[in-house]
Specification:
Layout lengths: L1 H12 E2 L12 E4 L19 H6 L13 E4 L27 H13 L3 E4 L11 H5 L25 E3 L6 E3 L18
Length: 191
């Protein structure tokens, strides 16, 4: 029964988030893409939850069975998926496996018609090493000023937070995986 599975997924994924006063007392369903068994939202039948599937089940959200105020989508941007989509290769697109930009527009429109908010998980601190900026705009990233790591910082997921650039331009900072170079927010063009 899809409705029962969605309710179970809601019990697992419903979280009280606190990104600020606007959502302090709201209930947010955190939808992780990719798990069609946890959330039967797989319109195209490829085994991966997608935007079309969420649209198909939108009437179940915000009801007495699943009383939520917002849907929070994990990253849906094009990505090599080395870190579950948090290694964004294009901030303006949607990974084809999850749908299209038009699907996002429809989801937002239809969610708002049901008084539901839609939150897209943004990743502003780094990109994928496969993002065009990494090749075309190296000044958008943090680089060591020496031939080697700038310091002894450790990455969140282990190891040094500095890696040698595969294009031979030196060493770049990554707070997470080496495939996720940190953006240099001191550069006004990045913002």
């Amino acid at each position: 029964d899809p409705a029962a599975q969605i309710e179970r997924a809601g019990d697992l994924g419903r979280r009280q988030r606190d990104p600020g006063d606007a959502l302090r007392t709201q209930h947010v369903l955190d939808l992780q893409h990719g798990d069609a068994e946890e959330l039967p939202a797989d319109r195209d039948g490829d085994g991966t939850g997608d935007l079309g599937g969420i649209l198909d089940h939108l009437d179940h959200f915000g009801t007495d069975a699943l009383p939520i105020d917002a849907i929070w989508l994990s990253p849906i941007y094009p990505s090599p998926m080395r870190d579950g989509g948090y290694d964004v290769a294009d901030y303006t697109g949607v990974r084809p496996q999850f749908g299209t930009v038009a699907d996002v527009d429809r989801l937002v429109e239809q969610a708002h018609a049901r008084a539901l908010k839609v939150l897209l998980d943004a990743v502003p601190c780094h990109t994928s090493i496969e993002h065009p900026w990494f090749t075309e705009r190296p000044d958008f990233y943090v680089w060591s000023d020496r031939d080697g790591p700038q310091n002894n910082w450790r990455a969140t997921f282990g190891g040094s937070s500095w890696s040698r650039d595969p294009h031979g331009r030196g060493w770049y900072l990554h707070s997470f995986y080496p495939e996720q170079p940190d953006l240099d927010w001191r550069n006004p063009e990045v913002g």
